[in-house]
Amino acid sequence: MPPSSFGFAVAAHPRDSDTAWFVPAIKDERRIPVEGKLVVTRTRDGGETFDVLREGLPQSHAYDLVYRHALAIDDSGDRLAFATTTGGLYVTEDQGDHWLEVSHTLPPAHAVRFAPGPARDQRTRHVHPFMTRQASRASHSN
């Protein structure tokens, strides 16, 4: 069972239509992770059941919200990344079983995409969090 039926971010596996990831949150009035714990949920059976993936993600006092376009999956279906409104950037290379915090000091991110690397070596893909002009300007004015 997912920890919430509300959330903005969803990523679907590029080849397995039964597999998808969600970043749940408390609905509009509060817009924070459930119980202050940042998790990703994954279904592998079209939404019948969900795994709650926590390893490497903050499990106390987490106020990270992940917008709709701030969760991305690469073409392999193994690597995911998401960025938060509080400056976090997280990446996994094993479909979400283990997450690595890449940064916690970015401006609020509204979208994340994988940029293709050289065609011969898919391991050289990079994550680029895209920020709004306002957030980008704020980070340069400090």
Structure summary:
This protein has 142 residues and is mostly beta strands. It has one helix at 133-140; strands spanning 7-12, 20-24, 40-43, 51-53, 71-73, 80-83, 89-92, 100-103, 111-115, 126-130. It has a single domain, classed as YVTN repeat-like/Quinoprotein amine dehydrogenase (Methylamine Dehydrogenase, Chain H).
Broad CATH class:
Mainly Beta
Overall body shape: globular
Strand count, sense and barrel status of the largest sheet are: 4 strands, antiparallel
Write out the strand line-up for the largest beta sheet, numbering strands in chain order. 1-2-3-4
The appropriate CATH architecture is 7 Propeller
Count of structural domains? 1
Descriptive notes:
The chain has 142 residues and is mainly β. It has a single domain, classed as YVTN repeat-like/Quinoprotein amine dehydrogenase (Methylamine Dehydrogenase, Chain H). Helix content is 6%, strand content 30%. It contains one helix and ten strands. The strands form three sheets. It has a four-stranded antiparallel beta sheet, with no helix packed on it. It has a four-stranded antiparallel beta sheet with strand order 5-6-7-8, with no helix packed on it. The chain has a two-stranded antiparallel sheet with strand order 9-10. β6 and β7 (89-92) form a beta hairpin. It is globular, with a radius of gyration of 15 Å. The N and C termini lie far apart (43 Å). The relative contact order is 0.16. Mean pLDDT is 79; it is low at 128-142.
